[in-house]
């Protein structure tokens, strides 16, 4: 029993340490947050040219939280219902071009300032996949360090993505979204990579209430995602239970007019 507890502590301590060392907040130089026109169609969010800020139209707060804190739906708890339904237009400008991490921290500050969002983190044992380098060897292409161009993981079709100059946490987030589990990165890979990944998404037939159910029928001749990750990237995903950091929303308010 003591050995089991020590083993669990060895897993959890790095997670607690990472949370305790969260960098100090930084803010956008100028930020406008307005309710979206309810009659407008479409929308989205993207960094502006040169990572100089964020542009968003018709975006809900839940999505803002996902981006700002690099969490998935399973890592968010306590969010009010209006996080899903209220949509906003955002124009945020940084004082100077920043890194992706800096933009995320600025977005966190915007949520705290304009939405009065307060939160805490908890560690919960949940189903996860651990990501390791496959015994056949890594197939990711290391990005040229002299090329500072950053393109996030972009869908180029159903079950197809391309990536340029992305860190492992971005790959883990993409895999987590598609596999409906959090990914624990045990690869030890600290550099940035370029890759293309193609797999067969599952058909999820509609249930009696019209919502998508779970199915296993593929929509293309490409391999399933776990197999594609192994064959195309040289990485292996193993299912188990593990510690997951959950972002718990303690308080939030709809923003006042600018």
Report on this model:
The protein is α+β, with helices and mostly antiparallel strands and 258 residues long. Mean pLDDT is 84; it is low at 1-20 and 206-215. The protein has helices at residues 2-20, 61-69, 82-85, 100-114, 168-179, 225-233; strands at 30-35, 44-47, 53-60, 76-77, 87-93, 118-133, 141-142, 151-157, 160-166, 182-185, 193-198, 235-251. The protein folds into two domains: 19-115, no CATH class; 123-242, no CATH class. A hairpin with a 5-residue loop joins strand 2 (44-47) and strand 3. The strands form three sheets. It has a four-stranded antiparallel β-sheet with strand order 1-5-3-2. Strands 4-12-6-10 form a four-stranded mixed β-sheet. It is 26% helix and 33% strand. Helix 2 (61-69) packs across helix 4 (100-114). It is globular, with a radius of gyration of 20 Å.
Unreliable segments (pLDDT under 50, ≥5 consecutive)?
A: 1-20, 206-215
What's the number of helices?
6
The computed structural class is alpha+beta
Q: What number is the mean pLDDT? A: 84
Rg over CA atoms, rounded to whole Å, is 20 Å
Distance from first to last alpha carbon = 57 Å
Give the total of domains: 2
In the sheet with the most strands, the strands line up as 1-5-3-2
What is the β-strand count? 12
| Residue share in helix | 25-40%
* Sheet having the most strands: 4 strands, antiparallel
Overall morphology = globular
Order of helices and strands: HEEEHEHEHEEEEHEEHE
The proportion of strand residues reads 25-35%
